[in-house]
Amino acid sequence: xxxxxxxxxxxAGYDGKPAIENITLDIEAGQFVGVVGPSGSGKTTLxxxxxxxxxxxHGEVLIDGKRVSGAGSARAGYVPQLQTVDWNFPxxxxxxxxxxxxxxxxxxxxxxxxxxxxxxxILERLGIAGYAKRHIRALSGGxxxxxxxxxxxxxxxxxxxxxxxxTGVDIATRDDVLHMLADLNREGVTIILTTHELNAVxxxxxxxxxxxxxxxxxxxPEDVFTPEILGRTYNAEMNVVVLNGMTLVAESPHLFEELRxxxxxxxx
Length: 268
Description:
Blueprint: E1 5-14, E2 17-27, E3 32-36, H1 43-51, E4 56-63, E5 66-67, E6 77-79, H2 93-98, H3 113-126, H4 141-153, E7 159-163, H5 171-186, E8 190-195, H6 198-204, E9 207-212, E10 214-219, H7 221-224, H8 227-234, E11 239-243, E12 246-250, H9 253-266
Parallel strand pairs: 3-8, 3-9, 6-7, 7-8
Antiparallel strand pairs: 1-2, 1-4, 4-5, 9-10, 11-12
């Protein structure tokens, strides 16, 4: 099967300085992938390279076998980090969602009846149809995330890219968003998201890419989340335990050691 996304020896960055280097990576159609790595490791740049919104200094990106040649050339839905959004911009939820129709808009600049029907169906599916007329800044973090997900779904793409979609939301909302993405994935949508939340990835996502300017490792969480691979990814000691069949990463290694000592002492 041909990969839906292929990156070949990609260097990309800003002001002539690469943020990612020599990235070679294939994403198969239908995969649900989490990209993890420390701050500044190039996770967002990797997504932007796939979208064609960051200049490549070397290599090439292919989507469905076609070379990505600039912004708008990649047929993919994109959900940005909520922290990058200007919440003072006077726009309603339905206006945000309609921004996603650009690639399907037809010959006229205004929404068609079919566009409005599609928007309504998406908002209902995501549980925010009742907020369509509200200003986007009046929504909770989870509702805002759903609004931008709705915008991405308006493109009717089989590829969805999300940058830190669960940052700044509570645990219940995070799990809700991840379950909703899993439902979309089961319907055939390929999903790639960046995240700092290793344990949420281990619990929900079947495939992981560890990045620190380069691709460090790819595979299932139980294969990739090892002290050695995570240590190379984060340039720090990382402890991993398996509890009831679930892989858990102790992101505070000193705290992990303090908790482990009493447990070990009790066994003697």
